[in-house]
Specification:
There is one protein chain. The protein has eleven helices and six strands. It has a four-stranded antiparallel beta sheet, with no helix packed on it. Strands 1-4 form a two-stranded parallel sheet. The protein folds into two domains: about 325 residues, Outer membrane efflux proteins (OEP) (Up-down Bundle); about 70 residues, no CATH class. The chain is elongated. By secondary structure, it is of the alpha+beta class.
Length: about 425
């Protein structure tokens, strides 16, 4: 009891926020730090497209090349000394860079898929924590009821011991059961607190807060009816397979980029220079003008580009083969896991039905014993012990429903319908 009182006092300093499952998932999708990090990676990859496109965007440079000259006018870094000079450059044919843009676009698409994958992972983790908290809530409530029932039984045992109708050892057994029940209740309370705090962190709250599951009636829709339809949906919606396919395309563009290094590149170049008279150009050249311009193309033809490009293209080919094998393995794994997830739902459904029938028998047993007690045929102790068994059956029913909902969420995650089902 002291531990329970301590937890109650400690919870007074925490912000307890009741949430439904739908609200918890919605908050997690908006505020979860893992999703925020994935979105930053997506933004980073998207900016990589602009970086790859940069050579094809004109770049203009303006400056000055002032210098004092004596004798024959010389150049500074290939340009005549000038008061003002400007230069514009833009690539118009550069196939390696063109393929580099395609690689950047595939990387950005893969980053977008990563965000979708992370959203589904966070939604599933949130839902699972929510179900854990609900189950612990119900367990703690039943454990407290069991303690009350056991204390009533123990009170009757003590009265019968005083009357000489019960052995003292029965009192010790009753006290042991109560101690075990309190230990169980304390374990439920401790685990419940940790789970509610974990749920709060997942949905974007502080670790000092607690997200409390609210009582609600819910059903999960969009569940596939057959294993084959589940597998088909899983393969069609798999972000993992699409991510591998995107990586294969990116590697293909990288191979083409390396192979294109033997092709020429063409850049558009424009230059302007304002020359000064004091540089003595008029003394050495027949004609001199201060304003000078140039517009043309710069063509670079690789005569021998080395062996690195060919080796990198070969590496890319090997990587593509590896990714294709990984795609086959991934499809097989998803198929097996989806079939098992569908079977787990059916198995959990049957277990829940059996637990419901078992509870029905226990409740009927309690009703029968109550009627017999009123007739004086059984004692109140037998009735209370039957009620304890009934509470255990209730706990088993809650656990079976919990396992069923977990199995359904897992199947929805595999088929790509989890977010739609939780809206």
């Amino acid at each position: 009891m002291k531990a329970l009182l301590f937890l109650v006092c400690l919870s007074a300093f925490a912000n307890e926020q009741p949430v439904t499952l739908q609200q918890a998932v919605g908050m997690a999708l908006q505020q979860n730090p893992d999703i925020a990090l994935a979105r930053l990676n997506e933004q980073y990859a998207s900016l990589g497209i602009r970086v790859a496109q940069d050579p094809f965007h004109p770049k203009v440079f303006v400056g000055s090349g002032l210098a004092y000259t004596t004798g024959f006018p010389m150049s500074i870094e290939g340009s005549a000394p000038s008061v003002l000079q400007g230069r514009a450059v833009s690539s118009i044919y550069n196939m390696p860079q063109r393929y580099g843009i395609a690689v950047a676009r595939e990387n950005a698409r893969g980053a977008t898929l990563d965000v979708s994958t992370k959203r589904e992972e966070v939604a599933l983790r949130t839902a699972m924590l929510y179900l854990d908290a609900e189950r612990l809530q119900q367990g703690a409530k039943l454990a407290r009821k069991q303690i009350e029932t056991m204390e009533q039984v123990l009170s009757g045992i003590r009265a019968r011991i005083q009357e000489g109708r019960e052995l003292p050892i029965e009192k010790m057994k009753g006290e042991l059961k109560i101690a075990q029940a309190r230990q169980r209740a304390e374990a439920f309370e401790t685990d419940l607190r940790y789970t509610e705090e974990s749920l709060a962190v997942v949905i974007g709250l502080s670790a000092d807060d607690r997200a409390i599951p609210a009582e609600e009636e819910r059903t999960f829709k969009l569940l596939p009816e057959t294993e084959d339809s589940a597998v088909e949906s899983a393969l069609e919606s798999s972000k993992e397979i699409r991510r591998i396919e995107s990586s294969i395309l990116a590697k293909g563009f990288e191979i083409k980029s390396n192979q294109a290094r033997k092709l020429p590149t063409i850049d558009l170049v424009a230059q302007y220079a304002l020359l000064a008279k004091y540089n003595h150009y008029e003394d050495y050249f027949r004609s001199f003008q201060r304003h000078n311009g140039e517009l043309g193309v710069s063509v670079t033809v690789p005569v021998y580009a080395g062996s690195a490009a060919k080796a990198m293209a070969a590496q890319g080919t090997v990587e593509v083969q590896r990714l294709r094998l990984e795609a086959v393995n991934t499809r097989n794994r998803i198929t097996l896991e989806t079939r098992k997830a569908h079977q787990d739902v059916a198995r959990a459904q049957r277990a829940s039905e059996v637990a419901g029938l078992d509870l029905g028998v226990a409740r009927e047993q309690v009703n029968m014993l109550v009627a017999q007690m009123q007739e004086g045929r059984v004692t109140i102790r037998q009735v209370e012990e039957a009620r304890l068994q009934e509470s255990e059956k209730w706990l088993a029913l809650y656990d079976s429903r919990y396992q069923l909902e977990r199995a359904k969420l897992n199947l929805l995650k595999h088929t790509g319908s989890l977010l739609a089902a939780l809206k």
